[in-house]
Amino acid sequence: MLAIAPVAGSHPVVADRNQTELAILNLAINARDAMPEGGKFTMTLASVHLHGEPDDLHGEFAALTMTDTGAGMSPELVAKAFEPFFTTKGPGKGTGLGLSMVQAFAREAHGGVAIHSVVGEGTSVTLYLPRQQQDNPSAG
After folding, report:
1. What pLDDT score does 93 carry?
2. CATH at residue 62
3. DSSP state of 83
4. Which of 33, 32, 23, 54 lies closest to 116, judged by CA?
5. Which residues of the chain have pLDDT under 70?
6. Torsion angle, CA of 82/116/50/84, rounded to 10 degrees?
7. Of 4, 41, 127, 138, which shows the fewest CB atoms inside 10 Å?
8. Is 133 exposed, middle or buried (CB count within 10 Å of its CB: 0-12, 13-18, 19+)?
9. CB 45 within 8 A of CB 7
10. Residue 138 lies in a domain
11. 133 with 117: CB under 8 angstroms?
């Protein structure tokens, strides 16, 4: 099941559209793989003001959160999740590059990414992208 929860009054972001699409697709595929018996995948969007967390970010951001009801990850696995070539998938089922690429994209866009996961309950990954400033309508 897919649920998309849009937010009224959301703002454009300053990020490459193709890279944003690839990040969302990667996270959706990870969520699907975490729910082999089925489950729920939810995307939410919120405008947030950050004060240093995550990734020492400050200012106005769009927070795109993708949540699954899959197996979840232990804190030890979450700590390794962004490492290149780290994967919890079996042989031939993942490269271990997806989350590291999502993190690299977020940083390149002057944003960040955070994971919250509970074993047996699921995982939420939030992609923080800088909001477009009102005086720069050509950005985004």
Report:
1. 73
2. 3.30.565.10
3. S
4. 54
5. 1-10, 90-92, 134-140
6. 0
7. 138
8. middle
9. yes
10. no
11. no
E-strand spans in the chain? Answer: 2-5, 41-51, 58-68, 112-118, 122-130
* Paired sense of beta strands 2-5 and 41-51, if any: parallel
| Residues contacting residue 65 through CB under 8 Å, at least 6 positions apart | 43, 44, 45, 46, 124, 125, 126, 127
Residue 29 maps to a domain: yes
* pTM of the model as a whole: 0.84
Number of domains in the chain: 1
For residue 52, the enclosing domain spans 2-130
Instruction: Give the tens place of pLDDT for each residue, 39-78.
Output: 999 999 888 999 988 889 999 999 999 999 999 999 999 9
Q: Are the C-beta atoms of residues 66 and 103 closer than 8 Å to each other?
A: no
